[in-house]
Amino acid sequence: GKEKACLVTLVDRKSRFLIAGKAKSKKAACVGEVMINALKNQPCYSITPDRGKEFALHAQVSDALEKVRFYFPYPHQPWQRGTNENTN
Description:
The protein is α+β, with helices and mostly antiparallel strands. It contains 3 helices and 4 strands; from the N terminus they run ββαβαβα. The strands form 2 sheets. A two-stranded antiparallel ribbon has the order 1-2. It has a two-stranded parallel ribbon with strand order 3-4. A hairpin with a 6-residue loop joins strand 1 and strand 2. The relative contact order is 0.20.
């Protein structure tokens, strides 16, 4: 079947600054490419994604963004990503 595009939203927890990008599909390679392009020249200290398979290439994203740290929340605890959840 045809892959559906998705919106990748990246929100700064303190300032609520939003960067969003469209990925061709929800596949990890597409989502990772959008994240790298969106954050390449931005100050970025950590990323807390949800636990979806679209973040499977987090190590490559980390490498491309000068070893930014990824923190995955515990299962079924969306409040650990409250700013992004509320923005979406």
